[in-house]
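Supplementary Methods, section 5.1.

A reviewer requested that the exact input to the structure prediction be made available. We therefore reproduce it here, unchanged from the version used in the analyses.
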Amino acid sequence: MRQSVRRWLAGAGAMTAVGAAVLSQAGLSGAAMAATSGRAVAAHTAAGQRALARAARSGAQAKAVTPAGWAPTKHIIYYGEDGGVVSRLQLRLRRLHYYPGAVDGKFGQDTLEAVWAFKEVQGLSLKYHPNNVGFAMQRQLVHPRLPRVWNPNGGSNRRIEVNQNIQVLVLYHHNQVELISHVSTGGRYYFCEPNGGGCGHFAVTPDGHYRAHIFVRGWMKVPLGTMYNPVFFIGEEYAIHGDIPVPLYPASHGCVRIPMDIAGWFHKLIWVDPAPNKGTPIYIHGKAPAA
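The structure derived from this sequence is encoded token-by-token as follows.
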């Protein structure tokens, strides 16, 4: 696993030295930085962790118990922008277990996909200007909601929940959110198989309870199409996998597409085993909007 990913997993809920430097560059005073760091520490006390666990078990659209860590700006943050405010945005998303890529101050594809996922979980509109971080999202970054929990007892160690209603995947570890990612599931349209295969197939990702039972490294072709680093949950056909593109809307032939950078290491966060009832549980719920 790449070093940047290790840092993201280890520091998703904590203020790092890099984060303090970014806040300093953004113009925050030493007192403000100390206060922000203090909130980060306080949120990771035993009481804070118990509150997170209670919220996760409730299954409600609860608000996350997280450090404030974000002060809304007076301007919209645009896709393609760079600078200290983007670094702070990346740090905030990382703390909330979204994957914005490296904290490099560049609003690129990884950060964009994290922004999409955040908006989807928060119920913010993606109809107009989905690529920008407007004032509504900035306010929500202060007190964000946790994703809806579908299966609080679905896995004592790790489990994956895919919510097709909002196109989001959540990976849980001991009932705590470890990763939230935007996905693109079946687009609910008819298609023909590649390379002259049969037509009339309906692109739908089937709801249900599955297991991660096969992983294949790199690119491969199956009847549903081409996929990168697939983690199969139905035979050798339906998988969670990387692809280009992973658009904002449901577009796959039935698999669950995840961003390419996440697909590079996602399989390392879960247990893949062909034996019955051994692989990480995968729960798929909801209905993707029609393409």
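The two ends are 34 Å apart (CA to CA). These observations are discussed further in the main text.
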